[in-house]
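Entry type: protein chain
Record version: 2
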Amino acid sequence: MGTVATLNTSQTTQLAYWIPEIWSKKVYEEAKARMYWNRFSGPEGAGMPIVIKRELLTQPGDIIHISRISNLTGTGVQGQSTLRGNEEQLSLSEVQVTPQWYRHAVASTGKAMKQINQDFRMKVTPGLSYWMAKKMDTSMWTAAQGTAACGFENSAITIIYANDAESADTLDSADTFSVSTIRQAAARLAANDIERISIPGMPAGEGYYLCFIHPYQAYNLKADTEWIENHRNASERGRDNPLFTGALGEIDGVIVHETTQCGRVQNGNTPAVYYSVAVMVGKEALCRGMNKDVSWSEQMDDYDFVQGIGIAAAWQDKVLSSNAIIQIYSAAVAPS
């Protein structure tokens, strides 16, 4: 029997023009633009509430170890007292980030593409971009609203309940979000020695905490007389900074953002009440470890009859410091 002829398949080098770089950039930039948390993120040392760790993008590995050395609190010695034997041991803590892969794709046959009156690629890429942005946003929000011990401190995040409530199930419709709850949360962060997020041009030591609330919490806040008076007389400051983009307002050094990322659920009270968990953060409260930046690929199959477009990224979001986050539980009843 003679040698059976096989197909002379083309490799990626021959088909490179099917994966034009301009499309990859477009999808990635659109995904970034859609990501709610993107403007609150930055590299380590940037002073943002979310730290982006990118070491695995340029070197092999599967876990990022983020360590912190605690401040020295020992008494030391005075005068001519002997220091030897009274040295203070260093206290180290760490957060481990293990990025996971997330992928999605859409495919269509040549027959379907021939029949539709829209550009398949043009319609699919924004959809995939939105899916990825939503996935990454939800991941960060889930980390910020977690209840387990976390962060360098390996402790639970502090919870504040609006008004006189003592738990989620004791919240009633009168336990609404207010300026008072904002002040309580900010005081807790300050008591934890959490630095505020600085804005270029501001004096050293000044800055802001960020608070993210549900639209129904915002509805209650905007009815607070103190909030109304504050913003009636407030002057504009730093409004061209991304931290202020889309913000509801600022009071006592806290920038408030309204977002549907902050969902709402019913509690076990009688009658049951919808409530939301708002989140207030200081500097470097959360982190995102990346193993694969947002990317996309295009694939032709079955002799160019089937076209597929996919998007992928690998990351994990975690609390970096539980002391730098405060969760605020309040009623979030739909306006009637």
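Comment: The two ends are 83 Å apart (CA to CA).
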